[in-house]
Protein 1
Amino acid sequence: MSETILVTGASAGFGQAICRRLVADGYRVIGSARRIDKLQALQEELGEAFYPPANGCDGSFSGRSCTCQFAKRLGESGCFGIMLAWL
């Protein structure tokens, strides 16, 4: 089983490039960002190794419901050892 890495700011720029590289290197990546449409497009590109936020969330996990869905997504993917945050 490969390690899972959480990347924030995954919809564009450095965050998106890092997601691509990590998946290419064999990691599973959970990506978050405010632009859910960009995350869904990235999932189509990267396949099953890339997990966007739960449906109905904007990717920023600002609300309680989205935070709970995010925690569930982490539980489904197993533990993760690294978090990369881009501001």
Protein 2
Amino acid sequence: MCIDVAARRVEDLYEDFDKTAPYHRKDLDADLADYLGDCVREIGGVDFLIRFTLERPLSEDLVRRIRSSVKGFFLYRCELEQALSAKCSEPHWACLWPVFCSSRSLSGCREV
């Protein structure tokens, strides 16, 4: 399964709060993160790839940085959720593990 994401520029994939931070240290755009979460919940337990389509071709280095930042973003969110769930004494919506904590692939299709 492939989740398609189209954007004009790489910068459109990330939050604007810190324009000087390198991509691997930026949060994904909130709408993009929500979209990816919705897609993964919809497809269920199927392995998937995320394909980013941008207007301009990217260097191999930038493709690697985007892949790493997307994966790192969701791994970090999983760590936060795990820490929160360890502190919760009873079930609560905020204590649920996000769908990205599974072992599914977060590498992109070659179109990145």
Protein 3
Amino acid sequence: MVSRPPVFDPKTKRVRKNAIAEKKRHTVKSLVISDHRRYILFVSPLFDGSVHDYAMMKSLFDPDLPWFEHSTLRLDLGFQGAEKDYRAPSNILLPHKKTEKVKKESISRTHE
């Protein structure tokens, strides 16, 4: 990648960052499953970046089959709904989203 110096934009009267970095790109992503030692067990084919994480999981692992009955899945909030759709909801762990009140309290405690 070629780096270019910052450019002054007369319309906005601001200095723009690297013009190459500002261009939008088509993104791709994949689903990766690993164990607790971070050993990679599965890497999915590539999907467009606009596809939701949970939609990727449902297309790869049919919810009607017992894929995760004997294993524990730790998923992020992009997989909301997995507890309902897959057969073993006790084996699927999703983080609990903090409320705004809790976030503000933790911020105020750190600044005291």
Protein 4
Amino acid sequence: MLLIINCLILRLMITQEQILKNILKIRTDKGFTQQNVVEHLGIEQGSYSLIEKGRRELSIERLLQIAIFLGVDVKILLLILIENITIAMMR
């Protein structure tokens, strides 16, 4: 179990770019602007922009807040990540 958790943490660091792409895609598909998101999160627009560009760390807490705002399960934002882990475990 510990090995899987360590693998998950490592994969989160490696795939942050994909997670951010997922957030951007879902946000724009639902017609939300960055301003809509920052009003919900209570942060500055510039800070959120840096998060979406990958220039500021995306914490687990912030990821959960974004998922709630977007109305999706956080697993949807991590979908590629989950598929990669499943494939890696099957090999």
